[in-house]
Structures are given as structure tokens and as C-alpha cells.
Amino acid sequence: METVIVDSNRAMVGTSAVIESMSSAVNGKEVADVRFDPTAVVPELVPAVVKSEGVDAAVNGGGEEQEREIVLGRNIHTSSFSVTEPDADDDSTGDKEAYMASVLARYRKTLTDRTKYHLGYPYNLDFDYGALTQLQHFSINNLGDPFIESNYGVHSRQFEVGVLDWFARLWDIEKDEYWGYITNCGTEGNLHGILVGREVFPEGILYASKESHYSIFKAARMYRMECEKVGTLLTGEIDCADFKVKLLANKDKPAIINVNIGTTVKGAVDDLDLVIKTLEDCGFSHDRFYIHCDGALFGLMMPFVKRDTCSSAS
């Protein structure tokens, strides 16, 4: 059974079963002292490092237990607003609303300026949510499985399942042969895909090319999975020769593999057929491996690329 996991930024396709929020309130007594500087830079942003001995070998990618550095987060405020609650007899509501309007106006200008000169990441910046304004006063929540009726009636599941069906058609998957949901981001899609693999093979080893998205290795840490980082070719594709060496060294454990459909930096597309052939050559039957395909950059584009075009280009 195949799975389509879709998110608003990246199309995630799996081949197995299956704001930062800016909250601010204004203290009327401190209005004159607050300055919003979105370009402020705070030095020494590197988190503190602590030593941890005897860390589980699974987290370290196999081998004997070894000392590992654990990087902890630090609470560093580059800019913030104080959050206060109004007094019961507060009579400065108008002043606060005017101040908030000015704060939001400056923030909007910052977003406009930064968007204008934003380079280096494949965002779609052509936003127009005007038609959705009429829906902003409802608490819409698609909690739970989109294919199971919810007790919470204020939802948009009919749209969610419609989007999933569209992606299923894009990848030539029949309506009754897939399951999926719309995630909040690409990282969540990867976390879920790897989690399904871990649930299918609790003792399995995760294999991913070294140029895979960082969320793949984050998943390994979160789920306490043994992870093998596989080398890549010059193009950024997974090196199946190195993959074979690592598979043969772990033949006693099932394999959970991340295959990339366009890596973040080089846009490399791993050869799925070669990955499967390598697994079979190493003695892994189809009931001993799980493959998660990270749609990344090209999951949405690849179905529109004709095979004969790829062949002539190569």
C-alpha cells in the first residue's frame, strides 16, 4: 500500500503502508521606551556544549558507545515585546491600539523589505489570501485522521482529502490505495514517514545519504534509531556502492531507507530502482525493508518530466 503525505511547501511521497508565532501585548506605560529593531544582531549565538558519556550507540550511528557532545539551546532575545494584562479600570485602550497599529505597520515594512531582497530558498512568494478573509473568524481544525469522521465539526477535511486525491492522481495511485494527510511543513512529513518505518521495523536501521535533509537525521535522534549515513556521488545522489557495504555489514537487521526526490542543495534525485536492486542483491527481501521518499524539491515536479526527456538528457 502506498502513501501520499502532502504539505504546503513540499510534496512527500512514501512507498510503503501507509510562527514562529509572534505574540505581543503593549504596556501603555512603556510605549515611549519600546523600539522594534528587526535587524538587531546579538553576538555569541552559539549554544553551550555539554559532554555526555556512554550515549546509546544507536544515536551515534552504530559501533561502541562513545562520548558525544550535546548542544543545548539558549534563551537569547534579539527583540521582544513585554506581555501585560490591562487593568480593570484601564482607560488607555485607544492609545494602545494606536501603538499596536504602528508596531504592526513597521513589522509589515520589515517583511516587505526582506521579501523583496530574499534569495536562496525556494519559497512561493505570490500570496493572495483575499478570498479566504471570510473564513478567518472560525476556529477551523482538521485534527485526527482526515478519512475518519471527527466529533469536531468545524473543519475543512473535504478540501484536505481533495488535495490528497490530486497528489495521488499525480503519482498514478488509485484512490483506495493510499493514505495521507496534509502536514504543516516538510520536516513533519519526513518525521511521520520515518516514524512509520520505525513502527514497521522497530529494530531496523535507518539509511540516508549524507546530503539528505537534516530532518531525516533529526528523526533518527528523536526516535533513538541506529542511523547509517551513506556517501554520495558528485551529483549528490546516494552512492549505492557505499550503500551496499553498509547493508552487508548489517544484514541481520531490517533496512529503513530515505530516498530523495531532489536534495536541498544539489537537487539530486536518488535512483530508486538501483536502491531496490542493491537491497535485493544484499539479500533483503521485500518484507525486510521500508522506503520513505522525501519529495523535497522535485516531488511535485518529477511527475511532469517525461521519461524520454530524461533519457535523451542523460
From TrEMBL:
From its record, what is one biological process in GO terms?
carboxylic acid metabolic process
Q: What GO molecular function terms would the record report?
A: carboxy-lyase activity; pyridoxal phosphate binding
Fetch the Gene3D superfamilies from UniProt: Type I PLP-dependent aspartate aminotransferase-like (Major domain)
Q: Where are the transmembrane segments?
A: none
Q: Which InterPro entries match?
A: Group_II_Decarboxylase, PyrdxlP-dep_de-COase, PyrdxlP-dep_Trfase, PyrdxlP-dep_Trfase_major
Q: Which cofactor does it need?
A: pyridoxal 5'-phosphate
Q: Which keywords describe this protein according to UniProt?
A: Decarboxylase, Lyase, Pyridoxal phosphate
One of its Pfam families is Pyridoxal_deC
This protein's record includes keyword Methyltransferase: no
Q: Which family does it belong to?
A: Belongs to the group II decarboxylase family.
Question: Could you identify this protein by its name?
Answer: Histidine decarboxylase
